[in-house]
Design a protein that fits this description.
The complex is a heterodimer of chains A (about 260) and B (about 220). Chain A is α/β, with parallel strands linked by helices and about 260 residues long. Chain A contains ten helices and twelve strands. Chain A starts with 5 loop residues before the first strand and ends in a 7-residue tail after the last helix. Chain B has a single domain, classed as 3-Layer(aba) Sandwich (Rossmann fold), CATH 3.40.50. Chain B contains six helices and 15 strands. In chain B, a hairpin with a 2-residue loop joins β14 and β15. The relative contact order of chain B is 0.17. The chains are: A alpha/beta (about 260), B alpha/beta (about 220). At the A-B interface, loops of A face α1, β10, β11 and α6 of B.
Amino acid sequence: MALAKRIIPCLDVENGRVVKGVQFVDIRDAGDPVEVSKRYNEQGADEITFLDITATHEGRDTTVHTVEKIASEVFIPLTVGGGIRTVDDIRTMLNAGADKVSINSAAIFNPDFVKEAADRFGSQCIVVAIDAKCVSAEGEPKRWEIFTHGGRKPTGIDAVEWARKMTAFGAGEILLTSMDQDGMKNGFDLDVTSAISEAVHVPVIASGGVGNLQHLVDGVKLGKADAVLAASIFHFGEYSVPEAKQFMRDQGVEVRL
Amino acid sequence: MSKATIAVIDYGMGNLHSVASALEHVAPNHDIVISSEAEVIANAERIIFPGVGAMRDCMAEIKRLNFHRLVPELIASGKPVLGICVGMQALMTHSEENGGVEAINQLPGEVKFFGEDLTENGERLKVPHMGWNTVSQTADHPIWHGIEDNAHFYFVHSYYAKSEDKDLVIGRCQYGLEFDVVLAKDNLVAVQFHPEKSHSNGLQLLKNFSQWNTGA
């Protein structure tokens, strides 16, 4: 018996609906976030991540209500990310029932925000999301940089160094998305996942690129991820969470069945 | 007739809504109140003592609100009391977190750090211990009713409790080392994991607590 590797379905939510873009272009509707969360909860998901991609203020109020509804019906950990920029944003989401918040671009613009957030609310609820893209040329040692704006804007920040810095500032977990792989269904970027997982002492969630169940196993075994996050393979019914867990267990990965 | 009450003690550390909504889910015959008022808490039929965050901050708030006196009184009164996570740790004698913090001392023992170089089978383990791990039931207790041995519960912590009195230990967990995760003494139960986040096993445990007849 050991700590189980976690499977985390991710809900990208816009204006109160679950959506999943393929590389942020083709957006398909995947349902009501409360219903989707309940379904994953019943299926035995280990955690749920809710990423708010709504741009408007009115939409963000909807998000708070949605989080409240999910939290009152789903008794597994819930992480909320997207647009978390201030201590008040964090408090609003925690009060709505989120267990953790995920901070992305606000950490890049103001790294001390992560420190302040961890001091105020505890590291256990502060996740730093990293969107990384490989920037080394072929033949060079691999190197990844942080990108913002859905993978369009480079920041010049080295992803592994950034992960180290963020955990030193109090991040309790890293949510790592490969912008090269996201939506491609070719599997996680295992190199950046293992590089970051080995560089930090906190859990790392691998994200971006899952197309089949072997990819989940690879993320844990080769990428050394502590948890794996996926959206579309679950949303569109290609695989269920129990199928994913059984497959992982058959491959020797410790899971909660 | 008004319903009996389960009070969730609020000392400003962390979000208590998930504990409250999980209780509402499993204890429909109870009123669930989140409160920092001594009178409201003392009038409840049973009490939850939760906690998240750093021990020093938690104990500072507990003392500021005089809960370091109230909680032992509640325990002495014979009412069922459930400590959760840092609530469990605050019930111990002392924690080595934040350079050493004196706790409420209702369960004799120390709260210790997992350490930076925790390993299992040659593999480096991450700290905090975050996620689902199995709990072995080392003794019978009404709180285990309907829950299988080695069932999974959700944990998030970097410090663990070490009971001085092994007879109080009713649940243990393994993460690099074996440690005490459920302690029981008369009408008091303390758990390291988060039952409110532990899906059906956690809900069952909270239900058991809501129905637990301590004979008081």
